[in-house]
Amino acid sequence: MPQNKRESLIYTVLMCFTMVLWMSLYNVALQYGAVSLEVVAAAWLGFPIAYVFAMCCDWFLVSRLAKGFAFRFLVRPQDSPLKKVVCVSGCMVVPMVLIMSLYGACEGAVHTGMWSGVPLQWLINIPRNFVMALPFQLLIAGPLVRRVFRRAFLEGTVLA
Q1: How far is residue 156's CA from residue 84's CA, in Å, rounded to a whole number?
Q2: 78-104 pLDDT, tens per residue?
């Protein structure tokens, strides 16, 4: 886990990149009904704006709320690092799924012009995204990003 603000920013950049790219591919594949190069191209085109939006939401809102909730109600300072990681990651996924599912519903409305369908699409997106985002975060993205982060930045090498 990051030890200071600079490490947190680097870690967040890597984690957001991984999660937004994967969830973009997943959502576009759901929309197209298959996985193809067209899906990859469409997901990649929508990725930059979704990434910037997710990064801002994560850095300025969700991270503080999730860590506050996790350390107030779920973990104590003496708990194992694994428990802390799992609890904070789980607490990050829930609000990010809510926010990014709304983002996806709004993005769909921009393309179709059907703004009246946004609330229903948002409610449909939430469980679809949650069932992918939570296991992906806990089992793949989290361990992968932590490993890459610590290989690139040994503990104590990124100054505060």
Answers
A1: 20
A2: 999 999 999 999 999 999 999 999 999
Contacting residues for 35 by C-beta, under 8 A, at least 6 apart:
25, 29
Main-chain phi, psi angles of 140, to 5 degrees: -120, -65
Q: What is the signed CA dihedral for 125, 127, 128, 131, rounded to 10 degrees?
A: 150
This prediction has a pTM of: 0.93
Using left for φ > 0, alpha for ψ between -120 and 50, and beta otherwise, residue 34 falls in beta
Dihedral angle, C-alpha 140, 62, 132, 16, nearest 10 °: -50
Q: Where are the domains of the chain?
A: 5-152
**Euclidean distance between CA atoms 98 and 112, whole angstroms:** 21
d(CA 143, CA 137): 8
